Amino acid sequence: MGNPDIAYPLWPPLTAGCPTTSTDEIAYPVEVDYDYDRVPPGLFEHATGTGLDRWAPLLPPLTAPGLAEGGTPLVEIADGAFVKDEARNPTWSHKDRLNRCTVSAALGAGADGIVVASSGNHGASAAAYATRAGLKCVVLTSAETPPAVTSFLRAYGAVVLTVPPEARWPLLRRIVAETGFHPVSNITTTHTGHAFGPEGYKTIAYEIFTELGVPAAVFAPTGYGELLFGVWKGFAELARLGVAMTTPRMFACEPAAGGPLARSLAEGRPAAEVEVAQTAAYAINSKVSGYRPVAAIRASGGRALLVDDAEMTRAQHDLARAGLWYEISATAGLAGFRQAREQEEFDGPVVCIATSSGFKDIGVGTQRPEPVDPRWDVVRRHLQSSGIAC
Amino acid sequence: MGNPDIAYPLWPPLTAGCPTTSTDEIAYPVEVDYDYDRVPPGLFEHATGTGLDRWAPLLPPLTAPGLAEGGTPLVEIADGAFVKDEARNPTWSHKDRLNRCTVSAALGAGADGIVVASSGNHGASAAAYATRAGLKCVVLTSAETPPAVTSFLRAYGAVVLTVPPEARWPLLRRIVAETGFHPVSNITTTHTGHAFGPEGYKTIAYEIFTELGVPAAVFAPTGYGELLFGVWKGFAELARLGVAMTTPRMFACEPAAGGPLARSLAEGRPAAEVEVAQTAAYAINSKVSGYRPVAAIRASGGRALLVDDAEMTRAQHDLARAGLWYEISATAGLAGFRQAREQEEFDGPVVCIATSSGFKDIGVGTQRPEPVDPRWDVVRRHLQSSGIAC
């Protein structure tokens, strides 16, 4: 996709999109390319190593030390779908796959540190990989960060600066300019992201494939859509390598409060900017879309679905009743699948990516325990009111 | 250990210790035994399946559906030790291994529900496995439960009753008596635990062995000591099966605020009860020890180490700087290893078990973000005061 005739060297990684094709209106992302003929033929049958290292021949150099990220399980749920449980990563979200790669880029580029703008998962994960690699880390966050996430962001020793939301990206660019730190989040107005980031995400496709084959469809919670793009790229590579015969349909699951991917697709534009309303799914409530996920959804025969808070709340509830506790944003994939299956049938397994643990939600840590009188007659009434015979 | 001549059928699982040998002073636990001659010879070379199911021939029947628990990575740290990262489990602690087995016991016993007394991890994990299995769950907890853990305990739909700490065990026994629910935590005065629980923990030994061989020593955070006993049993089985030639030395790492295992060993008694002082390591601050971990430490040539809050705080800090965020109780293993290596050398790899994610600590969710003026001169001063040149 994009223009394959324009090529740049891998180093230093470009972090502001394609310098040739980008316009004032849209920044076009750059993408890591490989010499696919040199990929070891048996990689998908007998790969060795743990975490992302298993897939090193199809990744940029993993110079940053790992935390055994990835290798997350598929868990079957009553909906007849598989949940890809990304809450099982080292910092309990899919962002660890991305940051293993972006922090490797920072190390490879010789930076002393990294800087990231984040409401939670991305920042904490970046901080973890930075400290493990001996790099400093600056996280720009906003006062809307939930209480438990505030502790999480500070846990890994990063410099965490709480600034007004609109100040984050200008400050990010300024810090990059003044310190030489490597940015591991997007620094362009329309979203380009870090070129190495989706390379980490594409290992989700490899893992799904080795466990399940090619699913009929993948449902991904989407903000900018980098996760979706990365997973699509992984499946597209499997087809290109001749390892897989088909590719899955890719479904973006966006909060109905915004929905830049749905807008782009509806208007036939490469990217879009939308107004966003309030939603509990703060982690994926993006104003802007990137170019790549829009192209991926089109190429895969997928769609962008808008899921509202009530749909995500139901999905979150039902996943918890299956023993899987996710933050509400993480449940957009299942909410999207439930919408889609009302309209069409899927001929094969379906995977919903669940991105992150329940500890990251807004309300976590704000509930106070209500003491109960321990006398048996009082306890019995409590149990009976919950449907327990005694 | 114990008296191998006394045997009971597997069903119904005994939950109050050995009815023959227990006295008013001490309850002796019962243990699951196997026909080791029937274990498939190649189990440790080419085991298949995910989670605990991989080890089914050496476990009680896993009737409760799984969540792909276990299979957690070993992560190397600068101390020259490996951390067994149990925060990568389905509910982010080692308790998932135990509860897959105890909830299987409840299902196998035909109970409609389970009941558990817990300050956090055990209760949430039990609730997750119970709801997945279609069982009701009652969690008895206390008002000291930290804020984020309060949300966690309620996430899976259990009936959570906050009662005075001293009321928990009498109420647990009463609920068992009145509802027929199966207890998945200890119901005896000295600790026996659930017979199926350590069977889940022993899979930690199998996983360490397949990745690393037999380590020289294992350091485990210990409250009652069930985790330590389970891991020891796993290694002892490997030796008995002729798969491994040696067994590791087992080190219990107890909060210095209490320390019933150290007391038992010092006094040459099968179990002990101690007074406990305040510690941030609330999750492992036990008054009583069980019989089994004391015997395991002795048999392995290990020791019980008392680690204070300052030592655990340093271990927690250093682990976070290696990219691994654990609750303070979970870092007792590394704190213990650091004590021990001052006194002796270990001839081979050392494993510190880290039991649970940082989200479970007392202070999590209580810190408020402090907004920073986003003007560059202010931000620059912040960065400079953190040692960042700009």
In brief:
By secondary structure, chain A is α/β, with parallel strands linked by helices. Among the domains of chain A are: 74-91 and 196-360, Rossmann fold (3-Layer(aba) Sandwich); 95-183, Rossmann fold (3-Layer(aba) Sandwich). Helix content of chain A is 33%, strand content 12%.
Topology order of chain A in helix (H) and strand (E) letters: EEHEHEHEHEHEHEHHEHHEH
Structural class of chain A: alpha/beta
Q: Over the alpha carbons, how many angstroms does the gyration radius of chain A reach?
A: 21 Å
Mean pLDDT of chain A: 94
Share of residues in strands of chain A: 5-15%
CATH top level class name of the domain at 74-91 and 196-360 in chain A: Alpha Beta
Pfam family, one (chains A, B): PALP
Protein name (chains A, B): Pyridoxal-phosphate dependent enzyme
Cofactor (chains A, B): pyridoxal 5'-phosphate
InterPro entries (chains A, B): Ser/Thr_Dehydratase, TrpB-like_PALP, TrpB-like_PALP_sf
